[in-house]
Write a structure and sequence with these properties.
homotetramer; 399 residues; alpha/beta; Alpha-Beta Plaits; conserved putative lor/sdh protein from methanococcus maripaludis s2 fold; Rossmann fold; 3 domains; seven-stranded parallel beta sheet; four-stranded antiparallel beta sheet; 13 helices; 19 strands; elongated; ArgZ/ArgE-like_C_2nd (chains A, B, C, D); NAD (chains A, B, C, D); ornithine cyclodeaminase (chains A, B, C, D); LOR/SDH_bifunc_enz_cons_dom (chains A, B, C, D)
Chain lengths: 399, 399, 399, 399
Amino acid sequence: MERILEIKGHIIRDDILKKIDTSVEQYHGKYKVLELIVGDRVDDESTAKISIDVPEGKDEWIYNELLNLGCTIPKMNEEATIKYSDKNKTVPDDFYSTTNHPTFIYSQGKWIRVQHQRMDACIIKRGEEFHCVKLRDIKKGDAIVCGHAGIRIEAPQTPESNDFAFMVNDVSSERRVQIGVQRLAEEMKEIKAKKGKIVVVAGPVVIHTGGIDSLCNMIRGGFVHCLLSGNALAVHDTERSLYGTSLGIDLETGTAIQGGHKNHMRAINTINRSGSIRQAVEDGTLTSGIMYECVKNDVSFVLAGSIRDDGPLPDTIMDLIVAQEKYAEAVADADLVIMLSTMLHAIGTGNMLPSWVKTVCVDINPAVVAKLVDRGSAQTQGLVTDVGLFLSMLDQKLQ
Amino acid sequence: MERILEIKGHIIRDDILKKIDTSVEQYHGKYKVLELIVGDRVDDESTAKISIDVPEGKDEWIYNELLNLGCTIPKMNEEATIKYSDKNKTVPDDFYSTTNHPTFIYSQGKWIRVQHQRMDACIIKRGEEFHCVKLRDIKKGDAIVCGHAGIRIEAPQTPESNDFAFMVNDVSSERRVQIGVQRLAEEMKEIKAKKGKIVVVAGPVVIHTGGIDSLCNMIRGGFVHCLLSGNALAVHDTERSLYGTSLGIDLETGTAIQGGHKNHMRAINTINRSGSIRQAVEDGTLTSGIMYECVKNDVSFVLAGSIRDDGPLPDTIMDLIVAQEKYAEAVADADLVIMLSTMLHAIGTGNMLPSWVKTVCVDINPAVVAKLVDRGSAQTQGLVTDVGLFLSMLDQKLQ
Amino acid sequence: MERILEIKGHIIRDDILKKIDTSVEQYHGKYKVLELIVGDRVDDESTAKISIDVPEGKDEWIYNELLNLGCTIPKMNEEATIKYSDKNKTVPDDFYSTTNHPTFIYSQGKWIRVQHQRMDACIIKRGEEFHCVKLRDIKKGDAIVCGHAGIRIEAPQTPESNDFAFMVNDVSSERRVQIGVQRLAEEMKEIKAKKGKIVVVAGPVVIHTGGIDSLCNMIRGGFVHCLLSGNALAVHDTERSLYGTSLGIDLETGTAIQGGHKNHMRAINTINRSGSIRQAVEDGTLTSGIMYECVKNDVSFVLAGSIRDDGPLPDTIMDLIVAQEKYAEAVADADLVIMLSTMLHAIGTGNMLPSWVKTVCVDINPAVVAKLVDRGSAQTQGLVTDVGLFLSMLDQKLQ
Amino acid sequence: MERILEIKGHIIRDDILKKIDTSVEQYHGKYKVLELIVGDRVDDESTAKISIDVPEGKDEWIYNELLNLGCTIPKMNEEATIKYSDKNKTVPDDFYSTTNHPTFIYSQGKWIRVQHQRMDACIIKRGEEFHCVKLRDIKKGDAIVCGHAGIRIEAPQTPESNDFAFMVNDVSSERRVQIGVQRLAEEMKEIKAKKGKIVVVAGPVVIHTGGIDSLCNMIRGGFVHCLLSGNALAVHDTERSLYGTSLGIDLETGTAIQGGHKNHMRAINTINRSGSIRQAVEDGTLTSGIMYECVKNDVSFVLAGSIRDDGPLPDTIMDLIVAQEKYAEAVADADLVIMLSTMLHAIGTGNMLPSWVKTVCVDINPAVVAKLVDRGSAQTQGLVTDVGLFLSMLDQKLQ
């Protein structure tokens, strides 16, 4: 069935026409650009009139795609469709699955911004409000936004037009990292100055590569407001503080200590005896390191458990539903998220982040950054480099 | 203090003298080989008499190391030291931390084999028996094996003298994978013939690289007896079965489907409606794929949750304490564990495996195999290759 | 200075407006889209009128860029500017540096296609003809095309609209390789049927990973018409044929042969004694392997030397000027180039290839494919996989 | 045939018994350790008497292996066997193929040290002297050392007993790089103090990652005495100096310059006009950068050509026989070789290095270091890190 679509949005900047072309091809349909009125510049909005003829039922996919690209379809400025869940944790088949971009629902004649924005969620109506809710939290009877009418998304800034961008187009180890470090340090100073929130997501490689002292300096300097990690970082940080090793490797000399493999179990045993990391700090057992500085400087931390954890430490949350919720709370009002050498926790955090939170991912493996961007966290700036040297240089620039 | 140590074991084969040398150097001690009587061949046991002079308290480390290498120290054929835990989840500081090798405790005049062998555990005495118990499961009052007296370990076979070995010394992508596939297929046929147990640990890359059909064939063929994985494999397998895509990529053409990103959420919604994977198979919702074949062929599966899970599916265990226990049960009596493209679950499983369970780790990233071996699962045979093509070739060889 | 630019080309498909935007921004200029008349579909040509105001001298860069994108600038349908070299190996500063796309020069009232198209070359006029010539081959007095007037480029097909494309947008190991193998096999059969030319560029990893038999089958089957490689492939192929090893590793068992490291020197010594690879085949010294099959099946080969070569074999060309020329001849009329696990020779060959030659690059390291695409060989289809298994599967599909 | 072998050497330290075991197994022979008299410590020499029974002709392999491990076999303290080449570039089949360790030949009653030690060479007798000569330089009639009699090798120091060692056993990105940088800086200061020679082998990634300024500082500071590289480093260094870009990427902002891809060809054109890099410095064309500092500080450089070179620059040696010889001269008397992000030139240089020259290889890709070690340059210390940040930190430590 042929329909005339009028769209308004960043048609040139966001490659809307090319995306329509691909969509229509996929469904073996036809289209024709009837009219295109461009703004003066690429960043301006344009309007287009396009005739689209796709098989019945497939046009919905295309509208959805256009919505997700930030277009408005004038004829669709109608009330959003609400259907009701008939079973806990389930929604109607045509539920609208969210992106991580700012989203608005047309309801009772006005556009209302959706709260708790995150990707891969459902939108439910609660009174006058609309909220992103995860599928697992849907209750029977919840009012679910379905279809594509009455939904509008604010197109994300492309990295090219973003002051903060320091790595355009690609993920490569053959780039000058100093530029990225410099811009990140400036960003962090600005956020600190205006009392914003910086969240660090870190893996144990931070310890193994010698980044403890730099990260401790950053915590003491007020540049870290929340630490998200897993069991291993805290175990090896404690191991270093108590015995000087990380996974049995002496961090001063870089050599393996005979029998040192046992040290991480001794560290867990010691914290267990105190009862928790905080108590180990308070009773004088733990006197240095990243976790120590977090406790001393009132930096909150969340340690999420995983299938490979030894111990775990009493502070590690092994119920992942709870851990996901605590992570989500931690990043909800973040201004900047810095991900250091941890694919697992980085993707976990990336899934929860709205697209307007600046995100930097540092890893020596280009595949980790590429994967994060692939999964929708396109606002991520990647730095492919050695995380130990990176932290050392970032710490220098912050002083 | 100088002591004369008499040791008996695979002194040549397992580099015992070199390891003593390193240990003693580390503690700035002295040693002298007084006598060395070698067997006829490298694989025979030898005996040595060595004078060692290390600072007070450090000799314990060296004895521990020697024990873990499978040496017996004649003077130490004395009763093992037992101390008691004075608080849940804690043990005395000199607790013996286990390896994944067969371990024996000298108690009331005889050597008793430790049960539930795994690495990084404590040994507790229960009646006449000795068990590996994880630190977190220690209760106040438990009888803990401490120190180094009365402990003996059976040295593991070195890969060189192992028929099954197909990748000696190194982890490299520049090796002929066909040899490894051939030997693995033979091993699997033998295990099947004698009604043994093969456990497959798999990540979602198995789906993305087109391994579904091969793995389904292997399940139907009776070559898989348990599947350990996470939420993502089951989600993308279900997504493929219901919509033909995995993370929105059409698996027949390799191209991205517009709007296809939503498919994994639709898949979760659909399984939620049925109630579980098994119920989805039984009510006719799920009619193909890896999870379907597991249900139809009575292959048990355990899906362990993680911080990055969407959904999760009703079958995914988000309490990691429970998930670790179910994993551990699954591998307890395994004859062969095959790890396919999943660092997280492979290391998790590796931590639980006794050293006598044959283990194969397949990944396109050499760092994953190297890491698994580093962490103590030295029995692991690594294959650095494309997991999709690997499964296709393994399936051919099994037919 | 403000100028009105009228352009015609694939303005939508090739993101011309966005590229103008970026260019103008870079020179702190201004622009305004005065008019844009789009074709019916994305693949149709569009015309635009744009006002551009950039600092003196910078507009040339933008014109060049537009030319390279396949736009024509109507006012510029004027004679190309010719200047003369005043020294061997040098050209005027404003020389036109070529892309690898079909290029036409406006001369004496008509558009003439440039011959010997390759990237990073100069264009010289010889009589009525225009040729790509490498900087090093420029002679004093040569007539060089300069500036941007009278130059037109045919925009390359984007991979999306290319039947042969099997890997769109990204380079990842998490893709289904079988699809790519299937399409490549079909392409090869078609080329063979119409007596086209397939060039294989291969590194020694083909030997180490067990690809010899498959590649030999392909040569005997008539699917390889030229082999480009270096010294190492031929050395290790010969080593395998004579002693069963490659770099001392037994290819049947995968284990290192004691003293086997010497085998590659013995192989070179043996070929030296015969005088060349061809003579070694003819005198019965060499009786199997890739080089043997090349000689027996009249497949030409070029072995280019490198700084790391042992020997080299008498057939290895150590004068790289000569080697580059022989490579360039070999690919000049190729229909398909398959690059197997060799960054060095793949980039060397990529530099010489016009953009209309289909190119496939197979490597287990995603960085190699990414680098090839980065350097301008954007027509390259990448497959991130194990080259030994890849060849085995390709050989199966070709039979 | 059974023979009694008496060997003397670092039998324990260098795993001689295990290596004999492997060798004998391979030839389906038998052996028995009749006697083993160990030194007091692992580093002391031991003596052994071993009965070996292997098939005729295979014992030579084992003797060769033992020789290469630094053992002396008393009965073999006889004159070395000399045979004569009967054709240029060929030697008798049983020629002795060298290692990179110090080698001695027994001739006329005394041990004479071989000159120009390098791996994979032949040894020829010239008057009273013995020289390593590459196969390609053998002339008809040359006197070649063959067999295994009268050859002795000084076992290399194992890394464990080496002060300079900072990365034992493995190649991993999960290590603390600062320790390695610190030790390297100390080593460089010592070498400079005693007027030794430091050779830097560098790839173009040094430029792309922003290492120019640090390396320039090191050259001016007297820490670099020779630079070995290829065409690309010099091209991109010149490009940066003349236009601020490297492969078209602005090194100050990290963004791609439109049309910037042409810059490397313009750089070559400019140097061609001057005639050479040195002349470009002298005529004031080139006023900064690595090549500029080399010229100004009398640091010699060798640029070896490759199949992928554009241009090349007039200074690039495209005859690889000449380039290999100039490289070999440059490293002959080196005290330290630092390899920076270039697999090609690093392996090329590694092949030429005697085992007593300290070598450091820095690369973000662990496979590069692993490959270098695999190929026999086992003295190589590897650092898996970002080369730009590495140089920045090394420069700081040197000041």
